[in-house]
Amino acid sequence: MMMKRIIIAFTCMCFVGIEAFAQPVLTIGIVSDGENSKLSEARTALIREIRKASEGEYALSFPESKRIDASFSVARVKSGIDKLQNDPDVDMVLLVGSTASHIALNYNAFAKPTFAPFVYNTSLSGLIKETDRTKIRNLNYVTGESQLNEEIQALQSIAPSRKIGIVLEESHYRLYSKAAEEAISVFRKKGIDIVFIRIADQADGIEKMILTDLDAVMVTPLYGLNENIRKKIIQTLNNRKIPTYALGEGAMVNEGILAASVEKDDLSRRARRSALNVLEVLRGGKAQEQPVSIEQKRQLMINMKTARLIGVYPKFSVMNNAILLNVTEEKEPKLSLTTVAEEAVRANLSIIAAKLGVAANNENVTEVRSALFPKITGELGYTRLNSDNVY
Predict the structure, then answer these.
(1) Which residue among 52, 319, 320, 372 sits deepest, i.e. has the most Cβ atoms within 10 Å of its Cβ?
(2) What is the 8-class DSSP label of residue 291?
(3) Distance of alpha carbon 318 from its chain centroid, rounded?
């Protein structure tokens, strides 16, 4: 009987111990701009880094049922954010994509800790960044503060331009219209005309929308458009021999864009910064008190195949400090030991001079020997007597 009591007591202690050490599972909901390979990669990187940072301390869940695909619609992004904020089963919200991240900057406050890792410039959303924190309650974003002015300077170093077009989606233009109008005014004072080319979700009329008097065109990622439309835009610009520059997506240089300023490991650094901020909030910190800035070390990337196609030849000083794609190397002939020796003899200046000396001496010998050959000498005279003169 005593043994039974002991066993029962031990069993109860085990259950109490397991319950005491069990970790509550925290649910993180996700709103994505849309679905494509780039955003999928970004979402995977964020989840991986957040899990890694919180491992051993917190149990986190990223259920499929709490993931919202906004299909590249601004309205759907907003409704998705609001839905997760009001969902009692969601503890935190993660925003994947530049549209969702920038929309978050327009909120006054959030009900739950919300993380926006893909803010490229706070001023696009009208937010003034004064410190390395944000004043929006329950929001933490991550930004490298890429400046349009710096991007234009990079473009000017390759192709000096006075009239520059910026291709972007219609929905994004409406989202950033105030910042766009300010940019037009600011750059006009600097002698540069900025023209915004707003592309909808159809391919018709793209050739007409791209003005013929543009000196260069800057292209945004255009994630919300069909891939064929994006390719058609790049092809149209290259066929017109217009220098192009990618904004916010350096990988577009591989697709035929002339140049871009790229940040090495930008995604991994944003994901890691966000993961550390999430961990601090899990430990009791406030989202709005976590750092928002990451240092940007950008480098120019140039597609030399596109440069040759459109007839743009960057300065050597620019190419020397840039990442060059599709560089054509001169093919040198393969040389054997024998051909190397023959080439060395053929190009040896001393041997060439000696040969010329021998040729000159041969001419001298010929001239000297000419004195030994038979000679013929002849004279000719003519006299005329005048018949009427005695002399």
Answers:
(1) 319
(2) -
(3) 16
Sign of CA dihedral 320, 147, 287, 290: positive
Distances (CA, A) of 147 to 221, 222, 302: 16, 19, 19
Confidence of residue 260 (pLDDT cuts 50, 70, 90): very high
Helix (H, G, I), strand (E, B) or coil at 303: strand
- Tell me the average pLDDT of the chain: 83
Contact between 133 and 288 (Cβ < 8 Å): yes
Taking residues 30-53, what's their average pLDDT?
Answer: 94
Nearby residues of 223 by Cβ (< 8 Å), 6 or more positions away: 33, 34, 36, 38, 39, 72, 97
The crossing angle, in degrees rounded to 10, of helices 37-54 and 266-282 is 40
- Phi first, then psi: give them for residue 385, nearest 5 degrees: -100, 135
Residue 369 region by backbone torsions, left for phi larger than 0, else alpha for psi between -120 and 50, else beta: alpha
Tokens of 187: 């750059």
C-alpha distance from residue 212 to each of 165, 240, 258, 357, 375 (Å): 10, 8, 18, 64, 84
Pair of tokens at residue 357: 């000396």
Residue 11: the pLDDT is 44
Q: SS3 string of 246-263? A: ECCCHHHHHHCCCEEEEE
Residue 164 near residue 214, CB atoms below 8 Å: yes
302 and 314 Cβ atoms separated by less than 8 Å: yes
- DSSP-derived pairing of the beta strands 25-32 and 67-69: parallel
Which pTM value belongs to this model? 0.72
pLDDT band for position 18 (50/70/90)? very low
Residue 12 contacts by C-beta under 8 Å, 6 or more apart in sequence?
A: none
In this predicted structure, what is the pLDDT of residue 122?
A: 79
Which two structure tokens, joined as six digits, stand for 332?
A: 């040198």
Three-class SS state of 72: coil
- Give pLDDT, residue 213: 85
> What are the tokens at 233?
């835009």
Of all helices (H) and strands (E), which one includes residue 186? helix 177-189
Of residues 178, 30, 22, the one with CA closest to residue 115: 30
Residue 112, phi then psi, degrees to nearest 5: -130, 155
Predicted local distance difference test score (pLDDT) of residue 114:
97
